[in-house]
Amino acid sequence: MYKYNDFDEAFVRNRVAQFSAQVARRIDGSLTEEEFRPLRLMNGLYLQLHAYMLRVAIPYGTLDSRKMNQLAMIAEKYDRGYGHFTTRQNIQYNWPKLPDVPAILSDLADVEMHAIQTSGNTIRNVTADHFAGASADETVDPRPVAELIRQWSTDHPEFQFLPRKFKVAVSGAKEDRAVIKAHDVGLYLREQNGIIGAQILVGGGLGRTPMVGKVLKDFVALDDLLPYLEATVSVWNLLGRRDNKFKARIKITVHEHGIEEIRRLVEERFAQVKPAFGGIDMVMLDEIRAAFAPPAFRSAPTEAFDTAYANDPLFRSWANTNLAPHKAEGYAIVTVSLKTPGQTPGDASAEQMRVLAGLARDYGHDELRISHEQNVILPHVHKSDLPEIHTVLKAAGLATANIGLVSDIIACPGMDYCTLATARSIPVAQGIATRFEELKLEHEIGPLKIKISGCINACGHHHVGHIGILGLDRAGVENYQITLGGDGTEDMVLGDRTGPGFAYDEIVPAIERILKTYLELRDSPEETFLMAYRRLGMAPFKAALYPAKESAHAA
Fold it and tell me: Please, which residues bridge with residue 53 across strands?
């Protein structure tokens, strides 16, 4: 894990001191809210429906026990005893008091964390594959590159007032677990002819105009990667529209100018900026890589795992859903679900954070990850320790065996917290999870990704859900549109809208009809919902959703 050097420490402390003075001026009235707004947003502080919200960066989703324990302390001391993990691998505190924010930022700095550029028209928190450094299908660990990009982009003088926010994601595995094609810039790290580099995609994004990222450059060697990114953001910074914030993202720029013209301009700009780097970026990358050396994996028998798997049905169910293959023999990747049916997706209490910190320290080589799917990962766990880990998780209410199933729902905060939201997301997610817990159909249905957004901004990634739900306001009434067939992997596809939306009290029964139709029509239990939808198309699901309309049409 990357450790702050003297420059990092001084930089973050100076920002804390600067913002502390700005908060004091806001409190004493020297700054109006209008004047304070851009200053607080530069430091991750939002004004939500009921209170301020502080968004803390977790770069590329990587934590250790010390950081997680500090996040727990902050939740308990300054908030209401919990934090909310987001689809950008951040954590949000929904109830901080403005006078306490400087102290929170100082406490974060104590463990090499901050809230810089988690808001505003800047390059946001760099995200990555949450199995980075551990997954069996990984070619290149993306974390050193993600850290290099984080250092380059933080307080970059040219990129502090971009046309809109800018999001970067990095992956180095065969399977895309970082939704690369839905980002302003996505990087697939890979090896080509013995050289490590990246395929660069540009212009992806969701929101009111969802688009799949396009290939800007098929392969850029690592020693050209940072100047190529600089050239890309620089071109957009000049071309991007500032007359209409809804058309300011780079996806619109790419759409309006065409990928070929954008590529030409980036190559031209790259030739100008490349000499200015002089190789210092590669020196930095070498230093960063040393911080991400693999842990000392141990060799030990796995009989304890095998025995528990054979004899304990609860453990077996959890292992079947929540474990993933690890690159090291005898190890597994553990995904801890923050999606217990009936609970708020992505929320963890301070006590649960401490439990996770302890498990990482005692059993997981002191590493944790946050996934964009709002769960917590123990990336390096020897199988012999899994029965004990499962016992601890059960006691903490964290042993839900549902990763990748119906109740493992991505949901934005929605109208319960967000000023932009037009409908509730959290109660819908809770309602779906609870209903399918009652029906006992979750494991029968199998792999399924439900994603819910409370407004058109799509923070819940509904466009790429196998089942996507978008909450809107229709004349003061919540209305939920459904999309089917979305996919956020390397084969990214945007979902198809089924038709008219559903009222709040109709949306859970609507999802139930969709999934019962799938169970009736699938070829076999091995045919997942997404596979069945691609084979069957929209028609049978639409008929199940709108039976009266379909019958009238047939008549």
Answer: 46
User: What are the helix and strand counts (H, E) for the chain?
Assistant: 19, 21
Q: pLDDT of 140-150, one tens digit each?
A: 999 999 999 99
Pairing of strands 82-85, 62-63: unpaired
Q: Output the six-digit token pair for 236.
A: 């957009």
Give 233-283 pLDDT, tens digit per residue.
999 999 999 999 999 999 999 999 999 999 999 999 999 999 999 999 999
- CA angle 34-36-41, nearest 5°? 105
Q: Where are the extended beta strands (E) located within 86-140?
A: 91-93, 127-128
Provide the token pair at 55. Answer: 């968004």
Q: Which amino acid is at 258?
A: G
Residue 456 tokens, joined = 């058109």
Secondary structure (3-state) at 185:
strand
Q: Is the dihedral of CA 24, 30, 33, 36 positive or negative?
A: negative
Alpha helices in 258-384 (DSSP H): 259-277, 280-290, 303-311, 313-322, 350-363
Q: What are phi and psi of 335, to 5 degrees?
A: -100, 120
pLDDT of 549 above 80: no
Interacting residues of 371 by C-beta distance below 8 A, sequence separation 6+: 61, 89, 130, 177, 335, 377
DSSP letter for 339, please: -
| d(C-alpha 285, C-alpha 15), whole Å | 25
Query: What tokens does 512 get?
Result: 């139930």
Q: Pairing state of beta strands 347-349 and 82-85?
A: antiparallel
Q: At what angle do helices 386-395 and 350-363 cross, to 10 degrees?
A: 170
Query: Kind and range of the H or E element at 55?
Result: strand 52-56
Q: Treating both helix axes as pointing N-terminal to C-terminal, what angle do 101-110 and 6-27 enclose, rounded to 10 degrees?
A: 170
List, for residues 105-153, the tens digit of each pLDDT value.
999 999 999 999 999 999 999 999 999 999 999 999 999 999 999 999 9
Is the whole-model pTM more than 0.90?
A: yes
3-class SS at 369?
strand
> What's the pLDDT at 550?
54
What separation, in Å, do the N-terminal and C-terminal C-alpha atoms of the chain show? 65
Q: What are residue 79's phi and psi, to 5 degrees? A: -125, -150
Closest to 151 in 3D by CA, of 114, 183, 111: 114
Which residue type, as a one-letter code, is found at position 155? Answer: D
Strands (E) across 371-476 are located at 376-382, 410-411, 450-453, 467-474
Q: Give 555's pLDDT tier (boundaries 50, 70, 90).
A: very low
Identify the H or E element spanning 509: helix 507-521
Phi, psi of 132 (to 5 degrees): -55, 135
Q: How far apart are CA 230 and CA 471, in angstroms?
A: 36
Region of 485 please: left (phi>0), alpha (psi -120 to 50) or beta. left
